[in-house]
Amino acid sequence: MRAALIGVLLLAGCVTADVVPNTVVRDMAPTGTLRAAVSGDLPRVAADLAREIARRAALPLELRPYDATGAWDIAFIARDAQRSDVDFTASYAILQSGRELAIALPRGHPLAAGYLRDFVDEMKASGFVAESLARSGQKGAAIAP
After folding, report:
1. The pTM is what?
2. CB environment 36-69: b (16+ within 10 A), e (fewer)
3. Using CA atoms, how far apart are residues 111 and 10, in angstroms rounded to an integer?
4. Which of 12, 19, 36, 50 is the most exposed place for a label (fewest CB within 10 A)?
């Protein structure tokens, strides 16, 4: 059903794959700037993904170090099943240690969460994550299945 809806919207000229709907943009970055927190794990890959999200959403991007208590809209961190205050996308990379990296966002942003889940799937399938990993020179990391 989701694919059919996307097809209808594309045919209607309302949205393209590279454009984020305004309702999603407002849900994801309520301040009008995408505040993306990056952990120490694969920072270049996280920054590449954040830049692509900001480009598609036509938002200015503010990259900042990850701080669990800091102000951020999305964070590129290890998945943690114990965190009940955030929603996670599927993992985009797995470290040699087995830690899975994903995009997190505060709970209560369903439009942004849905968009980011689809975004991660697309970035893995398109080779974007693989290319970013290769450019980063990071050893011991792989694309998540």
Report:
1. 0.86
2. bbbbebbbebbbbbbebbbebbebebbbeebeee
3. 18
4. 12
**β-bridge mates for residue 75, sequence order:** 37, 104
The one-letter code for the residue type at 108 is G
Phi, psi at residue 37, to the nearest 5°? -95, 135
Residue 49 near residue 75 (C-beta atoms within 8 A): no
Q: Tokens 């669990």, residue?
A: 68
CA 112 to chain centre: 9
Give which of 90, 117, 89, 94 is closest to 104, Cα–Cα.
Answer: 89
- Alpha carbons within 13 angstroms on the beta-carbon side of residue 10 total 9
Q: What is the pLDDT of residues 23-45, one digit of tens each?
A: 999 999 999 999 999 999 899 99
In the numeric block, the tokens 């299945």 are attached to 145
Q: In the structure, how many helices (H) and strands (E) does the chain have?
A: 5, 7
